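Quarterly update from the structural biology core.
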Amino acid sequence: MSTDKLFDPLRHKEVAATAEERVRQWFISVLLGECAVPSHLMMSEAPLQFGAKKWRADILIYDRSGKALAVVECKRPDVDVDRSVAAQALRYNLVLDVRWLMLTNGVKTLIFRRDGNAFRAFGSLPKYEQMLCQP
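Predicted structure, tokenized:
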């Protein structure tokens, strides 16, 4: 494999090794390893549509019935994980109605869990089984 490409295990192909893609692939490995998310229940670069607007979520995690459970927004390491990144993930949530939002630039990772109609900061990276539990 060439150095300017990375293998995406979710898309089953090599992709350009951009700074954001490196973060996405790192976080996929975290989700697979530390969080024990089954690979067949994740999708990278998932297409979404809201009205005429088309978006792509960096990573989606699904529950066992195939409903979106979490959206992950990845940024390059030099991009702050701030309100604008959260707003982007919340826009995706208009379509997805997920329980979890995860934002990362590879240096800083923020996790949010739905609490009623709001998302609240969650202190640590949850295991997949924990993601499935209702609040």
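The mean pLDDT is 93.
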